[in-house]
Structure formats: C-alpha cells, structure tokens
Write a structure and sequence with these properties.
The complex is a heterodimer of chains A (about 450) and B (about 450). With about 450 residues, chain A is of the alpha/beta class. Chain A has one domain. Chain A has 17 helices and 10 strands. A 4-stranded parallel sheet of chain A has the order 2-1-3-4, sandwiched between helices. Chain A has a 4-stranded parallel sheet with strand order 8-7-9-10, with helices on both faces. In chain A, strands 5-6 form a two-stranded antiparallel sheet. In chain A, helix 6 links the parallel strand 3 and strand 4. In chain A, helix 1 packs antiparallel against helix 11, helix 8 packs parallel to helix 11 and helix 12 packs parallel to helix 17. Chain B has 3 domains: about 130 residues, Nucleotidyltransferase, domain 5 (2-Layer Sandwich); about 90 residues; about 150 residues, ATPase, nucleotide binding domain (Nucleotidyltransferase, domain 5, 2-Layer Sandwich). Chain B is about 55% helix and about 10% strand. In chain B, the strands form 2 sheets. Chain B has a 5-stranded mixed sheet with strand order 7-6-5-8-9. Chain B has a 4-stranded mixed sheet with strand order 3-2-1-4. The chains are: A alpha/beta (about 450), B alpha/beta (about 450). The interface between A and B is medium-sized, with 23 and 18 residues.
C-alpha cells in the first residue's frame, strides 16, 4: 500500500475536467515529479543506472549516494490510476494470469510492463538495474519484486525490517538492520552502480532531509488550527509527494518544503480554509481523521464528497506511510546508518495495532477531530486486517463516532460512488446529530 | 392543521408518513418507486394524506357518536369505496390514454379493431371493478399497475380471441400507456372521490343512510380542514429529487434509527433489510445513531435476493416466506451471490431437494449476511428492532430469531407491523423536530 502523488488533474469523465485550483507548491511539485519521470526515461542513455524501490522504508538518501535514478512502482501505479490508465493495465495483468484479488498496484505495474513500460507521462520507463526491497512488512512487495526480477532478471537486494510486534524498536533490531546495510545493501549498490560509497555524501543528503522534514511536519500540523488551512489527506498526498519519493535529501525538496511552509503559514495567518480543486473550502463543518489510502481512480470525485459537505480531513495515517515524522523522528546526519534503520523500523505500516490505535487516538485529540473514517482497501489484505478492531477501539477510547467504507487503490471497478457517498453523508449527519445532542446536554 | 411529513424514497417502494403536532402518526402511504421518484414521492405523500383524512374521520365520527357501533365497518366500507372511485378514475384515464396510443398508423388496418377491443376490455374491467374492492376481496397488490395490469391482460386475451385479432397489439398499447397513467397524480380528485365514495357507502350500508347528515357533517368538516404540509424530510435513494433544500434531506441511516426508536423506545440495535441495502444501526436511548454498517459492493442478502429467487421459482415475492415455513429441514445455500444462489437453487431442485427446504435455506442465507453486518456494527444489543420489507417475511424472521438466539442469547426482538414505514417515520420526526424544536421553516431547493 501507499504513496504520494503528482498534481495532474484527474479526469472525472470524458468531459474536459474543469480547471482545478492549486497552490503554488502543488505546481512546483508537479514539475519535480514530471522531471523525475524524464530523468528516468533518459537515465540509460545518460549512462545512469536505475533503482526501483518502494515508498515505505525507502532509502532515498542512500540510493542517491550511488547516482541511481529512482523509480517507485507504487507511485507509477497511482499516477496511472489518477490518469485513468490503470483500468486497462489491471485487466491486462489479469489476462496474463493474475487473480482478481491481487493487490491492484501490482497488477497496474505488471500491466504497464506488458504494455511496453510506457509511464504515466507517456515516456518509456527504463528496465531497473537494481530492485531494492528495503521494507518487508508488506509481503506483497516481496512477491511484486520477485515477479519483476523474473521478467527482467535484474539484481535484487533485500533489507529485512523486523516488525515492531512489541511496539518498540530495540537496539538489537537497529543493529540487525545496520548490519544488513553494511554487509549486503551497500556492497550490492556499489557493485551494480560502480560508485564507491561515501558516508559524508550520505550525511549531506540527510541534512537536507531533516530540514525538509521539519517543514513538512509544520505543514501537516497546521491542520490543528481552526479552520484548518490544509486538507491532511486529499491535500496532503500532494505535500508528501517529493519527500516520500525520489526527492528526499535533495536541495530541491528542501526548497519545495520551504515554499510550501511559507504558503501554509500565510493561510494560517489569514485564517483561510484548505484549497480544493473547486477553490477554497467555504465552511469547515466536520474535522476528520482518516485511516487508509485514498482511492486514486476517482480521487477528485471522492474528495468532492468531503468538501461539498464541509468536511476537512485534519490528519491521516496515509500521509505518514513514507515516514512518521510528527512524533520527533528525523534523519540524523550524525548517525546516518542508524537513522536509516530507525526510519525503516518506524514506518507506519511496521507499527503494531496498539501503536496504530494510540497514534490515531492522539490525532483525534490533538487535531480536535469529530471522528475517524476508515477507507479500507479491498485488494490489500495486509493492512485491511484488523481495521475494524482499530475502529472499535478508537470509538471506545475517544467516544467519537467512526465509520468504515471500502474502495480500492487503482482498480476503477471497485469504486462505487453512490454507495460511498451515501455512507459518507450518513456519517456526517450522524456527527452533526451527536454534536447537537451533546450541545443540548451541555446546555442543561 | 400542521402536518409533518417524512418520505422514504426506496429502491422498490416509496413510503410517506404524516404526523401531527403531538407526534401522533395520522397517515401512512406507500407506492412503487417505478424509477420515477418525483411521482413516487408525490403519490406516497398523497396516499399518506388520504390516510390521514381517514384517521381524522375516525376521530371526528367517534367523538360525534354518529355511527355508534358501526364506525369501523362504515370506515372500512368508505375506504373500499374510495379505492374503487380512485380505481375507476384511473381506469378512465387508462382508456383515454390507450385509445390515444392506438391512434395513427401503428396498427395499420387493424387500428379500428384495436380501438373497439380496447373499449370492450375497459368496459369489462369497469364492470368487474366493484368486485375487486368488495369486502374480503383479496388483491395481490394495491398498486394500480398491478391490479389493472393483471386484469387487463387476462381480459384482453379473451377479447382478442373473441374478436379474432392479435393479442400482442393490446399488450403493446397497454405497455405504452400504463407508465403515463401511473405517473399522473390525481391530487385534485381526492375530495370529489371521497364524496362520491360516501354516496356509495350509504347505499351499501342503508342502515347508516338515515344518519346521513350526522355522518356527512363531521366528514365535510374534516375535508374542509386544510392539511398543511408544514415541513417535509426526505430520505432513501431518491432523496435528492425532493423539491427542498439540503436541510430537508436526511440519510436513511439516521431516519431508520430514529424511526425504530419512535416505534420501540427501548431499541438499541436496528436491522433494516430493504430492496438493495442491509443496514445495521446502533442507537442510543434518544434514537441517535452511534454507529452503522451497510452491505458494500454487493446486494446479495437484501430484498432483491428474494425477488430474484421468486422470479426463478416463478412465484410471487409474498409466497416465498409461507412456503419456507413448511420446511422440515434447511438446505445450505451460499449467501454471497444472488445469481449463484439462483443456480444453486436449480441444482438443488434437480437433486430432488424439496422446494420448501431450499426456501428455508435461502432465507437463512439472507440472515447470515445480515448477522455478519450486525457483527461489524458492534453486535446485537437489547432491544433489537427488525425493519424493512424483509421484516414482513415470516421465514426471514424465523431464521433471524434462531440465529440471534444461537449467537446472542435471548433478546427482545421488535417487529412492528408498520416496519416498512420506519424510515419515513424517522423523517417525519426529524421534520417535527426541525419546526417544533429548532424553529425552522421549509426551504425550497436552490
């Protein structure tokens, strides 16, 4: 599961989509991501090697130390989803023998390969020279790369990340990851790229990362204001784009987050609400926390169901899939390998149920949310399991209403707009009703 | 008088409930949704207002004592006569519409024959109409389309045979005309129909005719009282079609929760099985929804599942429950796909399983789906209220009772005879609250 996005207006239908309003930072982000696709497309002719890796636990700073161009298959799938290309790719993959129940990111990616690796921007994506599996909490990731390796016969390196089953990162877990980095991951990358590892180069990237991470956290936490100047889910997927993908550690990313932070600070000062594709959201009526990724194929339609009702997502666990920074973790140039280990171990999806529940309860409290909404992903068994239990527990602890909807990542067949809208409207009205009853009781 | 109206625009039927100033239910109306929510809403509301008139007649006549002892019989007769009057008005509309649709070159040389056959069919339909509304007469449905349709086709076949013409031409004219007719709202004719019905009733019950004036006066006074549509709240799939602002729209979850609470104040968990939705709702002691779950992506296990099975078995929907009740064992049937269940049904029949035993299995399959949705919503708490069209099916109720007992122990299970109106009642109560508690006034859709 996972990832960020680029600012392509998703088209709701064959009609030309109305012009979507965007923040400056969103436009800058779009440029960056398009540029990365171009770099990937021309990497081999420019003599660069290509590494493919996943968003949770991605070791971007380390990968950059070997001059790799970076490709993120999940991002490719979701970009194709937003551009209405994933439906055909998934069907192609199914025709090639993959079951209806397989993760739709995987099928979109395999379908893209079958179609000649034409990427989201229309340029041909290169065959990876290295598959870096640096986070193993999602077993599907492992199978996914296994399929790619089978097809392209490319070099694969795996970093095993122990699960935080007991809800903490121990020194031995950290040592275990660092040892793998030193003994396996770095030597493999040196061999494939022909570039010698330079730890000072890594430290330099990490300095940039930490700066950008500070700004990102400030932006995401701006939603604690009323009204929230951002949408911490639909808007946040744009904000996390660069830092969760090929840009963490680059000066461009640092600059991007600086621009973004200023923009959002300004919105806070002006007490403005979030920008939606149809302009600034009028009145903030509901503040929600969301668990689970958005649906990409009907992204705009899905978002509209929220802003039309005055619902803003103040924060989401999805905006943390590429790094949980809001509880203090930063990439640390003084302890580069250890902090890469902590980063992988601390992934949202590597946290156990009590940790995820605690995190959501904390969000509900700190962001003064009215409730929790779970969007459960049909084709993602790893992270859908247990979500109802989380919902119950959060309801019990916070006393706030929660709701559960189901859709999918990039399979357009699994977005049932009428049903989802019906449930969301019911949920918003339920919050309103509970609130008015609470108001009456408080007044008595 | 002020009336507060709730309309539940469901996928199969549209229901309306009218309540008065004191939250008493004074009228209920139902019609088929016929894929035209505008008309369905109007007709359901009109039916509910007619029903409210009868409620008020009863009140007025019982306090005047004019019909001492004969009140219930009189009102029942009056209602039948009113239905008959309404039916005759619609028949005459059907005739005009059919004749118009038979004009032109459609039937070529046969045009004349079609026209006179139509006249004959409608004549016979009119002649047998009083029998359809006689005391004790059984009608499969109360919807004009169903009653007139089945008789038109039966008589039409006979008439076509007698006239030596093609029956399908009569069917064709009917199909073209019935939609027009059932989509017309006869609001203005209600008072006139009631007064005409009153004359029929006096004829049918001559012993009451002597008290004619004493009976007429309170009825006239009720008819002269305007039933003011003070505030309407809409719910159900067609709710966005109502000519009111968003303020007038509530989700069916909230309406079913509140409606169930109004019917049974001790309700904690509500199960509603409708045409395409199964809802499990937890409410607090004020009828406020605490959590809910609905079926997602698939309508297996909803009312339509039974509708499909009824079609497969070539039976009426209402015949399934009674058949299943005759079962001596329950055949295991999958509950995850309606179409597969249909295939399984045929397979079981070919294996020699008895129809009633298979039916029992199908009803259990529906309830198993519901149990899973209930579990997702937080389980079943006491008291447990079952609503929606499927709550009228005794075999579904039996399966539910068994499974609840097996999984949750003994609980109070409420099934209201009027449970099909739960959503509409919740809507009407929201309408009442909006005006009486929140001081709101009706707002048009912008």
């Amino acid at each position: 599961m996972s990832t960020p996005v680029q600012m392509t207006p998703p088209q709701a239908s064959k009609k030309p989509a109305p012009h979507a309003q965007k923040e400056d930072a969103m436009l800058l982000q779009k440029e960056m991501i398009n540029r990365n696709y171009h770099e990937l497309a021309t990497a081999h002719e420019n003599g660069r090697k290509v590494a493919a890796t996943f968003v949770p636990g991605n070791l971007n700073e380390l990968v950059m130390c070997f001059d790799f161009a970076r490709s993120l298959p999940e991002t490719n799938a979701l970009q194709n989803g937003m551009r209405k290309k994933s439906g055909k790719m998934i069907m192609d993959a199914e025709r090639d023998g993959h079951s209806e129940d397989v993760c739709t990111y995987v099928k979109a990616d395999l379908g893209m390969m079958l179609g000649g690796e034409i990427g989201p921007t229309g340029e041909k994506l290169p065959t990876p020279d290295l598959l870096l599996l640096s986070y193993t909490g999602c077993f599907t990731f492992m199978k996914w790369f296994e399929l790619i390796r089978q097809k392209y016969n490319c070099e694969t390196v795996m970093l095993h990340t122990p699960y935080q089953g007991d809800g903490k990162i121990t020194q031995s877990m950290r040592d275990y990851v660092v040892k793998q980095l030193k003994q396996t991951v770095i030597p493999t990358m040196e061999r494939v790229s022909g570039v010698k590892f330079d730890i000072d180069r890594l430290r330099q990237y990490m300095k940039e990362s930490a700066k950008a991470e500070d700004d990102l956290v400030r932006v995401l936490q701006s939603a604690k204001n009323r009204p929230s100047p951002i949408d911490g889910y639909f808007g946040a997927v744009y904000y996390i784009g660069p830092i969760f993908t090929a840009f963490r550690g680059t000066p461009e990313a640092t600059q991007y987050y600086d621009v973004l932070r200023r923009e959002i600070d300004q919105r806070v000062r002006e007490k403005k609400g979030p920008i939606t594709p149809e302009g600034e959201m009028a009145e903030e009526k509901y503040r929600l926390v969301v668990e689970g990724p958005p649906n990409w194929t009907s992204f705009r339609e899905f978002w509209k169901m929220f802003y039309d009702e005055g619902a803003v997502v103040v924060t989401s666990t999805y905006a943390k899939v590429g790094g949980v920074y809001d509880f203090g973790f930063r990439h640390d140039p003084d302890h580069p390998l250890e902090s890469l280990a902590d980063y992988c171990l601390g992934c949202y999806t590597n946290m156990n149920f009590p940790q995820r529940i605690d995190m959501i309860c904390r969000y509900m409290d700190e962001y003064e949310a009215d409730g929790l909404l779970i969007n459960s992903i049909k084709s993602c068994n790893s992270f859908s399991a247990g979500q109802l239990l989380m919902l119950r527990e959060v309801e019990k602890r916070t006393g706030k209403p929660a709701a559960f909807i189901e859709s999918d990542l990039v399979d357009p067949r699994y977005f049932s707009a009428a049903n989802i809208k019906n449930r969301l409207e019911s949920y918003f009205q339920m919050i309103k009703q509970k609130r008015s009853v609470a108001g009456v009781t408080a007044g008595h | 008088m002020r009336c507060f109206i709730g309309i539940d625009l469901g996928s199969t039927t549209t229901k309306a409930v009218v309540i008065d100033e004191n939250q008493n239910v004074i009228g209920r109306g139902i019609t088929n949704s016929r894929s035209n929510y505008d008309t369905a809403a109007k007709i359901a509301q009109q039916e509910a207002l007619v029903n409210a008139r009868f409620f008020l007649f009863r009140q007025a006549l019982s306090s005047s004592g004019a019909l001492n002892g004969a009140l219930e019989d009189f009102l029942a007769q009056l209602e039948r006569d009113f239905r008959l009057e309404q039916f005759l008005v619609q028949l005459s509309d059907l005739e005009t519409t059919c004749q118009r649709n038979a004009e032109g070159s459609r039937f070529g040389d046969a045009g004349k024959a079609v026209s006179s056959a139509l006249t004959e069919v409608l004549k016979r339909l009119r002649a047998e109409a009083p029998a359809l509304f006689a005391p004790g007469a059984k009608r499969k449905s109360d919807f004009f389309r169903d009653i007139a349709g089945s008789r038109y086709l039966a008589i039409g076949e006979q008439v076509a045979k007698e006239a030596g013409m093609r029956y399908d031409m009569l069917v064709n004219v009917f199909d073209r005309s019935i939609i027009e007719v059932e989509n017309r709202v006869y609001g203005d004719a209600i008072s006139a129909n009631l007064l005409a019905a009153l004359d029929r009733t006096f004829l049918a019950m001559p012993e009451t005719a002597s008290r004619g004036d004493a009976v007429r006066a309170p009825i006239k006074s009720v008819l002269d009282t305007a039933l003011e549509e003070t505030y309407t709240v809409g719910t159900g799939y067609g709710r966005a079609r109502l000519p009111f602002s968003k303020e007038h729209i509530r989700s069916e979850i909230l309406c079913h929760g509140l409606g169930a609470h109004m019917m049974h104040a001790g309700t904690a968990t509500v199960l509603d099985i409708g045409g395409q939705d199964t809802k499990a709702i937890q409410v607090d002691k004020h009828g406020i929804v605490e959590s809910f779950q609905m079926n997602d992506r698939c309508a297996a296990g909803c009312g339509r599942y039974l509708g499909y099975i009824a079609d497969e078995m070539n039976m009426g929907l209402h015949e399934l429950g009674p058949l299943a009740m005759k079962a001596t064992k329950t055949v295991r049937i999958n509950s995850t796909c309606t179409v597969f269940a249909g295939a399984e049904l045929r397979d079981r029949l070919s294996l020699g399983d008895k129809r009633e035993d298979i039916m029992a299995g199908l009803h259990r399959a529906i309830i198993l789906r519901a149990m899973s949705i209930l579990a997702r919503s937080g389980g079943i708490r006491n008291e447990f209220t079952f609503t929606g069209g499927v709550a009228k099916n005794e075999a579904a109720v039996k399966a539910l009772k068994d499974l609840v007992r097996e999984n949750y122990g003994e609980l109070t299970l409420n099934i209201n005879p009027e449970s099909i109106y739960t959503g509409a009642l919740g809507g009407a109560t929201f309408a009442w609250r909006a005006v009486v508690e929140e001081g709101k006034t009706a707002e048009a859709r912008t």
